[in-house]
Amino acid sequence: MSPIKTGFLFLISIILFTSLAVAGEPHVIDFRWPNLYPEGMTWDPSAQHFVVGSLNHRTILSVSDAGVVETLISDVTLPENVTVLGLTIDSTKKRLLACLHSFSPLPPFNALAAYDLRTRRRLFLSLLPSDPDFPVSSTRRGRDVANDVAVDFKGNAYVTNSIGNFIWKVNEDGEASIFSKAPAFTRYPNAMDENDPFNDCGLNGITYVSNGYLLVVQSNTGKMFKVDADDGKARVVLLNRDMVMPDGIAMRRDGVVLVVSSQKLWFLKSDDGWSEGVVYDKTDLDEEGFATSVVVGAEERAYVLYGHVMEGITGKGRVKFEIVEVRSDKESEDEHVWIFVLLGLGFAYFLFWRFQMKQLVENLDKKIN
Description:
Blueprint: H1 3-23, E1 28-32, E2 41-44, E3 49-52, E4 59-63, E5 69-74, E6 83-90, E7 95-101, E8 110-116, E9 122-127, E10 146-151, E11 157-161, E12 166-170, E13 176-180, E14 203-209, E15 213-218, E16 223-228, E17 234-236, E18 238-239, E19 249-251, E20 257-260, E21 264-269, E22 276-284, E23 291-296, E24 302-306, H2 309-313, E25 320-326, H3 329-368
Parallel strand pairs: 18-22
Antiparallel strand pairs: 1-25, 2-3, 3-4, 4-5, 6-7, 7-8, 8-9, 10-11, 11-12, 12-13, 14-15, 15-16, 16-17, 19-20, 20-21, 21-22, 23-24, 24-25
Helix pairs in contact: 1-3
Protein name: SMP-30/Gluconolactonase/LRE-like region domain-containing protein
Signal peptide: 1-23
Keywords: Membrane, Signal, Transmembrane, Transmembrane helix
């Protein structure tokens, strides 16, 4: 077989393989654990597995891409019935960070726990302070909620307070302080119905961007904020549309930001470092699953957690939960366009090969004659 024909067949094989990969079904991971009701999830790039918390247990579990569940952390020294909410992996320090909270009628408790990923021992448990200007007893708001956490390259953790609408900072040694009470966090009106059970849920999902700032979403206003990781100054990101009850947030390597709610996964991008942004696509989610967290997993795929948290809050029992890959329809369309472009190039290459072969045969005939 000629080198040209071999190259052509190789090109066609690549195109067909790419087409099959794009057309494949989204990855669905079913996993089982009695009454787990996980609200938070993160991805461990080193171990190549997901990590989930629990509404009801003092445990943190790992979940493989095949749905195999193992106990990663079981910390019986924590207060009984404490909830494990936001999670993140500190890849630089090889630590797992977990937001801890106790819901009413339990005594107030908000903390950040750090665990060594190699030994699985707890490194510190940092109690998170209330705002002295607006104590928990104030009629202006209810008790604090340590909801989600992000970490920078120095090991500093940033924790959102959903009720207090401020951000805590916990340094790598476990020293906690109130980091940002930016006026922007309380500037915008509540967009939710006053009877909604999450009406008072403010700052929620948070992610650290390597350029030295944080992106934070606020559930009851639908806003996103850009927060300076040095001084805590914040300003709203101007979007082409507000999101409804945004919860978790994650960022892909290409700069695309993913924001999840119980009903939607939004895809956002920015050309100016998140002074402004565009919601360029959204995907409907299974409302019954009540998605609360989104992560970027292997091969930059987006996964949402169906933890069925509302069932857990109402006291129902459940064993099965899901982690599901979610794709952007618009990005899939763009990928299909590229496939057709590659097919077109392949066909053009084939015609060129046929032309070359025809010329070769004619030249040989001339020499023979």
